[in-house]
Amino acid sequence: MGSFKFLGLTFNIANVISITVTFIIMALILIIFSRNLKERPKGLQNALEWLIDFTNGIVKDQLSGDEGSRLGLYAFTLFVFIFISNQLGLFIEISAHGVDYVHSPTASPIITFTMAMITLAFAHYLGVKQKGYKKYLSDNYLKPFIAMLPINIIDEFTNLLTLALRLYGNIYAGEVLVELLAKMAFSHGWITIAVSLPLEMIWQGFSVFIGAIQAYVFVTLSVVYVSQKMLPEE
């Protein structure tokens, strides 16, 4: 059984478990890195502050001042969650009776589409809050002329699709290749193990890099979409 129903909604067990595991790992890492904070950071605190500066830099490239400060925490949280989610399936994958119970949450299109929808909803909210309803609608959907309205609406859907599918496709493909290499390793005894093991290690290392890049790309595009809604039309 790979799903259950609650309040009329169907939930995927693997996604629920995987997200819960990701949140636990994320909380533990941030708690450990932020213990015993000092004015002169060193060790784990240095790494945490570098990561905060890194995500703040992504935001400041698109938005500065008060507008950018609203996005700092969101960008940081989003980056850490996606990075851990991307790596989870590489190191922990639990299956039983043909059902995956723990895998990378971002290897599921439901999760990536949900994150993309949250980002775009957040962008609309901040845009309306910044400009007011009339100016927001005018800047984003009725310019340079009213006839652009259908194209601008279609553009919203393409932003959602590209943001979600880019992350899903990269992480899902990585997990599939890891699984294929694992099956190949045990297909013909020691010969295939000797061949597959180095390939598995190389691919896992490359997948960690890809996972970090995809987290960066997702956060950067999220900030770009938010800035487009908040900044005045030129």
From TrEMBL:
Annotated transmembrane regions: 6-33, 71-90, 110-128, 180-199, 206-226
GO MF annotation, one: proton-transporting ATP synthase activity, rotational mechanism
One Pfam family recorded for the sequence: ATP-synt_A
Keyword field: ATP synthesis, Cell membrane, CF(0), Hydrogen ion transport, Ion transport, Membrane, Transmembrane, Transmembrane helix, Transport
Keyword Cell membrane recorded: yes
Record-level GO BP terms: proton motive force-driven plasma membrane ATP synthesis
Protein localization: Cell membrane; Membrane
A GO CC term attached to the entry: plasma membrane
UniProt key word Acetylation: no
Membrane topology value: Multi-pass membrane protein
PANTHER family in UniProt: ATP SYNTHASE SUBUNIT A, CHLOROPLASTIC
Function: Key component of the proton channel; it plays a direct role in the translocation of protons across the membrane.
Entry similarity comment: Belongs to the ATPase A chain family.
Protein name: ATP synthase subunit a
Organism for this UniProt entry: Candidatus Gallilactobacillus intestinavium
Lineage summary: Bacteria, Bacillati, Bacillota, Bacilli, Lactobacillales
